[in-house]
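User: Some background: our group keeps a shared notebook of sequences we're curious about, and every so often someone picks one and asks for a predicted structure to add to the entry. Today it's my turn. The entry only has the sequence so far, pasted here. Could you supply the structure so I can complete it?
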Amino acid sequence: MGIEIATAEEIGALTREVGALKETVASLVREIEAQRRSAMPEWLTVKEAAAHLRLNADTVRRKVRNGEFETRREGGRIRIARASVLG
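Assistant: Of course. Here's the predicted structure to add to the notebook entry:
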C-alpha cells in the first residue's frame, strides 16, 4: 500500500470544489428557511412559538410579559407575531 501525495494544483482544485459545495449548502439552507417561514402562520400560539424557539411555553409567556414579542389577544388567548419570533 503506497502513499499518494497530492500536488498543490490538486489540493487547490479540491479546495475550490469544497468552497462551491459550502455555498450550495448555504443556499439550500436559506431556501429551506424561507419556505419554512412562509409556511408559518402570521400569528403563532404560545406553543408554536415555544416549539420554534425550542423553549418552554412558560419561558415564552415570561418573554411576552417582558414585552420581548409583538403580541395580540384573540378570544383571551395570546398570539405572537411570526416576525418577532423569527427576527
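Suggested note for the entry: Residues 48 and 57 are 9 Å apart (CA to CA). DSSP finds four helices and three strands in the chain.
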